[in-house]
């Protein structure tokens, strides 16, 4: 009787030990797996951010901010707007004007690889009479209310004069072009002008954070943020706004 009882106790204890040991092993494996997963996610982000982005250094163009009076003159040319308590109203849509989030700037490209001679892109309008070209410095969207982020990105606008006539009837399409890696707006100017002529529409492009004269660190999330900033600028803040339905990405 005693021997059978001792055998059953030993079997019960061994089962209990085995089950508890297996549970601890499973927990250890789960923790190990989660750690490995988190490590892989972190490493993948580091690899993407460090090896996927190759910004030209130095930038292939130069910029110069215009005087504040010149930017104010540009705002006075806006039509079909009414001012209400520091806000602009157009078509029952309200836009804040208490803090201007963009500036029109001068944009210079190099005429050769020696980088000695600069050309103002406005002078290209004489060579390519079918288009108008402008450059802007646009303040990035804040990630939250507490953030005081003053970083900005450079946006290039190439207006096709034919499509500009259609824009008054909201029939003109515009293209927002995201340039490739290892280049910037300075290298892309003539390609964008060619797109403007070939597609007979207005072309917009921008430099990602860390590219050209766009401020900030280049990351995958920063690229998405830059894109949303430019779309908001084109559809809400820029004079002669673009309908989101007419914007091709």
How does this model look, in words?
By secondary structure, this protein is α+β, with helices and mostly antiparallel strands. It has 2 domains: 51 residues; 188 residues, Rossmann fold (3-Layer(aba) Sandwich), CATH 3.40.50. It contains 6 helices and 11 strands. The strands form 2 sheets. Strands 1, 5, 6, 7, 8, 9, 10 and 11 form an 8-stranded mixed sheet that branches. It has a 3-stranded antiparallel sheet with strand order 2-3-4, with no helix packed on it.
Molecular shape: globular
* CATH fold group of the largest domain: Rossmann fold
Residue share in helix: 40-55%
**SSE string, helix = H, strand = E?**
HEHEEEEEHEEHEHEHE
Fraction of residues in β-strands: 15-25%
Measured distance between first and last alpha carbons: 84 Å
Number of domains: 2
Class by SSE composition:
alpha+beta
What's the count of strands? 11
Mean pLDDT: 75
Largest sheet: 8 strands, mixed
Number of helices: 6
- CATH architecture identity of the largest domain: 3-Layer(aba) Sandwich
- How big is the Rg? 29 Å
- Reading off the top of the CATH hierarchy, the class of the largest domain is best stated as Alpha Beta
Low-confidence stretches: 72-98
Key attributes of the depicted protein:
about 250 residues, alpha+beta, Rossmann fold, eight-stranded mixed β-sheet, three-stranded antiparallel β-sheet
């Amino acid at each position: 009787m005693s021997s059978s009882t001792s055998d059953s106790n030993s079997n019960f204890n061994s089962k209990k030990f085995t089950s508890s040991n297996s549970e601890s092993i499973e927990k250890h494996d789960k923790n190990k797996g989660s750690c490995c997963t988190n490590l892989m996610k972190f490493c993948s982000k580091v690899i993407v951010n460090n090896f996927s982005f190759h910004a030209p250094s130095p930038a292939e163009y130069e910029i110069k901010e215009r005087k504040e009076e010149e930017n104010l003159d540009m705002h006075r040319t806006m039509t079909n707007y009414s001012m209400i308590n520091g806000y602009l109203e157009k078509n029952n849509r309200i836009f804040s004007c208490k803090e201007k989030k963009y500036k029109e700037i001068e944009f210079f490209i190099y005429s050769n690889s020696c980088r000695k001679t600069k050309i103002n892109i406005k002078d290209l309008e004489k060579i390519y009479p079918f288009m108008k070209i402008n450059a802007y410095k646009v303040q990035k969207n804040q990630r939250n209310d507490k953030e005081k982020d003053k970083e900005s990105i450079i946006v290039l606008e190439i207006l096709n004069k034919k499509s500009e006539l259609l824009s008054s009837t909201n029939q003109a399409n515009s293209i927002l072009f995201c340039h490739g890696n290892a280049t910037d707006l300075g290298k892309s100017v003539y390609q964008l002008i060619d797109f403007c002529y070939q597609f007979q529409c207005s072309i917009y492009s921008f430099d990602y954070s860390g590219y050209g004269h766009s401020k900030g660190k280049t990351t995958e999330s920063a690229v998405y943020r830059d894109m949303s900033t430019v779309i908001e600028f084109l559809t809400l803040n820029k004079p002669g706004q673009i309908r989101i339905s007419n914007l091709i990405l």
